[in-house]
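Pilot study result, target chain (135 residues):
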Amino acid sequence: MANIYIHNIMYAIFLKLFDLVEKTPAKRDHVIFPAMILAAILNVSAWLAVLIGFWRFKDFIILQYNIYFGISSFGSWQQLLLLPLAGLVVSIMDFLWAFKLYLEYRILSRVLAVTAVIFNLILLSAVGLLIYMNM
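Predicted structure:
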């Protein structure tokens, strides 16, 4: 019984979010929509880079490097999946806020969209550096 209730709540939230994205004029904006596409491409690239670069590792890998102390953290490669996941969560939140705030604050909506792209670009470069350190 509780599963049906949770399912109905999740379905209602999904419908509200879908209506928000479908009805907003932000999807026709010349900054927000290309930023959304670019953020998605960068995020998928980060996922693929982690999976292709580390799937064959069975031992620990370098997770963190410090210029003062050198290697400061080891772990399994699956922990690196948290980087693209963080990029996905930040992107979704930024674009939902951008869609919601578009009519009142267009500049803030555009800043949120560009912030998602910059965040995913930084995460992709971090993944690239981690791949370089572990090879």
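One observation from the pilot: Residues 61 and 74 are 6 Å apart (CA to CA). A full batch analysis is planned for the follow-on phase.
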